[in-house]
Design a protein that fits this description.
By secondary structure, this protein is an alpha/beta fold. The chain has six helices and eight strands; from the N terminus they run αββααβαβββαββα. A six-stranded mixed β-sheet has the order 5-4-3-6-7-8, sandwiched between helices. The chain has a two-stranded antiparallel ribbon with strand order 1-2. Helix 3 crosses helix 4.
Length: 197
Amino acid sequence: MTQDEVVAEFRAAGALLEGHFILSSGLRSPIFLQKMFIFQDPVRTARLCKALAEKAEAAFGKIDYVVSPAVGGIVPGYETARQLGAMAVFVEREGGTFQLRRGFTIPPEAKVLMVEDIVTTGLSSRECLASIAEHTSNVVGAACLIDRSNGKADLGVPLVALARLDIPAYPADALPPELAALPPVKPGSRSIQGVKA
């Protein structure tokens, strides 16, 4: 799947929004990728995650476990794991940090891939990877549908993405005038999970 095809999937799903958005990182952007509009369609989700699984397997080889951060990473993590024939588990926030819960375990010898939905600054991905590191040192890399940092986010492990986009993001005190003129909207989920942006 080409980068243009990935963007076309987001457009067709109504998941590429324009306006003034407060991202979960706290940065502001004129573009928001509402991935839940993708994930409400199982066929579209399977198509994208199949392409992501193929790209991840080409980069990292056979994967045994896929670990994703809750909430946004659960659906693409599960579907990518299904396409890889791997186990799917997720970490969720407990006391402000990601933890494996619900009795999930990761065998120390398992080859682990961290799967995320969208990477902007890489903060939640790094937090997820730190949680995984408490259980295994065998993380082969990370994968996401869209890397909106265009390769600038440093996760500490190799990252494969279906699309790398250069979508601008600004601190709240450094907005361009055309963005500052629009009312901000906060569509992300991090604050819902009890973490301040």
